[in-house]
Amino acid sequence: DIVMTQSPDSLAVSLGERAAFNCKSSQSVLYSSNNKNYLAWYQQKPGQPPKLLIYWASTRESGVPDRFSGSGSGTDFTLTISSLQADDVAVYYCQQYYDTPTTFGQGTKVEIK
Amino acid sequence: QLQLRESGPGLVKPSETLSLTCTVSAGSISDNTYYWGWIRQPPGKGLEWIGSIYFSGNTYYNPSLKSRVTISVDTSKNQFSLKLNSVTAADTAVYYCARHQKIYYYYMDVWGKGTTVTVSS
């Protein structure tokens, strides 16, 4: 199985400041034939299901605010929140869907400083 | 707007079978664009994909659970179901159903709210 490792486990950022956290895969999730990275990001608030934010590493899901952006390629990826809002407090998970079984990172918890 | 809703017992005894159903509303489970999956999340932990099914009945399971899992579909009821046998305390989790885009292990764009299942005598 492809192992997904997120860092840090948690971070605290001031409102309006930039938050960025990482996801690393144990093997490349870039499919060379189509140059796509098979990587998604989800946001999970307490007591709620995960919500899809980003897929193909950098494509924002419909309705997701543009302060969320995904970047990276191969094995190293970053989710950036350009200006943290109170509503962004959550745990964020990355998921690889390059190979089955699909696997998730352990999550990064984002809090307000 | 498509919605998914999990239902089933919240308490299961050790060694018995966990059975859950996901009902799809405001959309058709027979849409050939999508696969339908189950994912679980133990208390305070991360997400684990259990398996997926296509409307035709083709199933795909996580090898780590394959020996204990059965997923089935009932297109007439717009439902799909999960059975996990020989459960232990380690199977205590929130169980989600979700829609996979295009391929059975791709990203999931619609999720149910989840249902908590506790394994305890």
Structure commentary:
The complex is a heterodimer of chains A (about 110) and B (about 120). Chain A has strands at about 5, 10-15, 20-25, 30, 35, 40-45, 50-55, 60, 70-75, 75-80, 90-95, 105, 110. Chain A has about 110 residues and is mostly beta strands. In chain A, the strands form 3 sheets. In chain A, strands 2, 6, 7, 8, 11, 12 and 13 form a 7-stranded mixed beta sheet that branches. In chain A, strands 1-3-10-9 form a 4-stranded antiparallel beta sheet, with no helix packed on it. A two-stranded antiparallel ribbon of chain A has the order 4-5. In chain A, a hairpin with a 2-residue loop joins strand 9 and strand 10 (about 75-80). With about 120 residues, chain B is mainly β.
Q: Total strand count of chain A, please?
A: 13
Helix content of chain A: under 10%
What pair of chains forms the biggest interface?
A: A-B, 21 and 22 residues
- Round the mean pLDDT of chain A to the nearest integer and report it: 98
**Main beta-sheet strand count, sense and barrel state of chain A:** 7 strands, mixed
Q: Overall 3D geometry of chain B?
A: globular
Please report which band the strand proportion of chain A falls in: under 5%, 5-15%, 15-25%, 25-35%, 35-45% or over 45%: over 45%
Q: How far do the termini of chain B sit from each other?
A: 39 Å
Describe the biggest sheet of chain B? 7 strands, mixed
Rg of chain A (CA only): 13 Å
Strand content of chain B: over 45%
Please provide the ordered H/E string of secondary-structure elements of chain A. Answer: EEEEEEEEEEEEE
Strand segment tally of chain B: 11
Overall spatial form of chain A: globular
